[in-house]
Amino acid sequence: MAHLKATLAFGRKLVETGVVKGSASQGLNKALFPLSKYLKYGLLTDDLMKENEIVREALRRLPGDVFHERQFRLTRAINLSSGKSVLPESEWTTAEQDVSYLKPFVEQVVNEQKERDDWNAGKLH
């Protein structure tokens, strides 16, 4: 699972420092989590965020190795999907591996944008 090494370490660091609470999948029903199709492609929940201006800025702020692992997972998933196949079950993403590595950066960008908008609107002095 070399494609997850830096992402998992980064996710653990975010949990340990209290930036995020547990894995991204903790909100999902434990019975439903294994039914999520993206797991069969080795993707993480945060890999599925729709790209927009905010997400692009959050991606820019990611550590390089975490960003490259994300790109690898997405490329592999596209290749598997186009070939109408999935990973072997032993390589599917588990609930423990599904760390929220991008969400803290998205929240940071949103908060900065709100603060900037408030400043420009004269709400902050």
* Strand segment count: 0
What class, by secondary structure content? mainly alpha
CATH superfamily, by name, is: Cytochrome b-c1 complex subunit 7
Strand content: under 5%
Name of the top-level CATH class: Mainly Alpha
Helix content: 40-55%
Uncertain regions spanning at least 5 consecutive residues: none
One letter per element, helices H and strands E, the order comes to HHHH
Mass-distribution shape: elongated
Radius of gyration over C-alpha positions, nearest whole angstrom? 16 Å
The N- and C-terminal alpha carbons lie at a distance of 49 Å
Task: Walk me through this protein's architecture.
- This protein has 125 residues and is an all-alpha fold.
- The protein has one domain (2-120): Cytochrome Bc1 Complex, Chain F (Orthogonal Bundle).
- The protein has four helices and no strands.
- It has helices at 5-16, 53-61, 64-82, 103-120.
- Helix 1 (5-16) packs across helix 3 and helix 2 packs across helix 4 (103-120).
- It is elongated, with a radius of gyration of 16 Å.
- The model has no long low-confidence stretch (mean pLDDT 84).
